[in-house]
Specification:
Oligomer: single chain
Structural class: mainly alpha
CATH class of the largest domain: Mainly Alpha
Order of helices and strands: HHHHHHHHHHHHHHH
Radius of gyration: 21 Å
CATH architecture of the largest domain: Up-down Bundle
Shape: globular
């Protein structure tokens, strides 16, 4: 007898692809920004709007998609979002002006972020909280692995073809995902969810925000995500401007850091069902604090080298990979009938706060690694504080879920 669809590798691969759709589109075009600036004859700040305004669209889309999926179903909302992604890609590819390019990228980003939100929601529809953490970890592996190679692909397209292909290629991927979603994605929304969405997004969000468990899980994931964004914002400056190393050195070391995060997600996928969400979250928090603290101690000792920065940060990235999928699964498990709203609300808070943290690191730059590390420690302290809001289970999960 064939296995159920949601347990098949093909179904998981589709969810991974939908999850990676938005990050892939965002990362592949970043090497194009100088070419875009030159092509339209605009200044750097205007060209940067192609990236920054699409980030705003992703944050707002993250907030909206969950309640929409709770009300109308996961499948139709995802299908519409993929269509938006394709339309935005086409508009950006052939945009005759920078203004239209910005609009196209906003539409592309608004459609692409649906995969991040709703793939996790679909997983929570189909699995219990421990297995959901395992599956979300696999989704996160895809979300991390694709952006690791996307800038390289984008750079090759810019150097040897045209920067416009960095918008067209995601559009082609979107068409393939549209066909696959129509063919293979069933509706997974629980019947009880539709009956509870009459009050709309604000009623569901208000209920979740009054629940300390949701706040604890969501704030933990936000602290971890913000620490990651702080590192993304500060590490290139520290390596290239403070340490005087070329960009290639930063890029090569960052692969090791990304690998640590991915390995943490793989470990979470393997072990979360055995050890339980809360234990994995606590262990991940400990590793984050240890990695950042060790890096700060080494820097205070005067050893300002890429290895001194990145090697301890591999432990931090591994801890983030352990804790983040479990925190996300915990947030979605507080009220399974509002899983879509929980996913969207938690994702919006993560992205909004992390974007502000990244900007803060840029403002605080003073020619040392210390502002970045100080902000990361504050984020780690927030992760520790969030543990107080997470209610420990009566009985720890010591056996894998059925």
């Amino acid at each position: 007898m064939s296995q159920p669809l949601h347990r098949s590798r093909g179904f998981l691969l589709l969810l991974v692809a939908l999850t990676a759709m938005g990050p892939f589109a965002m990362q592949i075009f970043l090497p194009s920004l100088p070419a875009i600036q030159a092509a339209y004859g605009v200044d750097v700040a205007t060209a940067q709007l192609v990236f920054s305004l699409s980030g705003v669209a992703m944050a707002l889309g993250t907030l909206a998609y969950g309640p929409l999926a709770d009300r109308h179903g996961r499948r139709p909302v995802l299908i519409v979002a993929v269509v938006l992604f394709v339309v935005g890609s086409v508009v950006a590819t052939f945009a005759p002006t920078i203004e239209l390019l910005i609009v196209g990228r906003i539409v592309q980003a608004a459609g692409g972020v649906a995969g991040l939100v709703l793939s996790r929601t679909i997983v929570r529809d189909l699995f219990d909280r421990s297995r959901a953490a395992e599956m979300i970890a696999w989704l996160t592996v895809g979300m991390v692995a694709v952006p690791m190679v996307s800038p390289t692909i984008g750079g090759v397209l810019v150097d040897f073809t045209s920067w416009r292909l960095n918008f067209l290629v995601p559009g082609v991927v979107g068409v393939l995902l549209f066909v696959a979603t129509l063919a293979a994605l069933p509706e997974t929304r629980p019947a009880a969810t539709a009956a509870r969405t009459g009050g709309g997004m604000f009623e569901g969000a208000g209920k979740l925000l009054r629940h300390p468990n949701f706040l604890g899980y969501a704030l933990h994931a936000t602290g971890s995500f913000s620490a990651f964004f702080a590192f993304l914002a500060g590490a290139p400056y520290v390596v290239q401007e403070v340490m005087g190393e070329p960009a290639t050195v930063y890029g090569l070391w960052f692969i090791a850091n990304a690998f640590g995060f991915m390995l943490g997600n793989v470990t979470a996928a393997r072990l979360s069902a055995w050890f339980g969400l809360d234990r994995m979250i606590a262990l991940g928090t400990l590793l984050v604090i240890a990695g950042v603290g060790t890096t700060l101690a080494v820097m205070l000792g005067g050893l300002w080298t890429p290895a001194a920065l990145f090697v301890p940060m591999i432990a931090t990235a591994y801890g983030q990979g352990l804790g983040m999928p479990n925190a996300q699964a915990g947030a979605l498990s507080v009220d399974p009938e509002l899983a879509g709203t929980a996913s969207g609300l938690a994702g919006f808070v993560q992205m909004a706060v992390a974007s502000g943290v990244a900007q803060l690191v840029g403002v605080m730059q003073n020619g040392t690694p210390y502002p970045m590390l100080a902000v990361m420690l504050v984020c780690g302290a927030g992760m520790v504080g969030s543990l107080a809001l997470i209610r420990l289970p009566v009985r720890a999960a010591t056996q894998p879920a059925e």
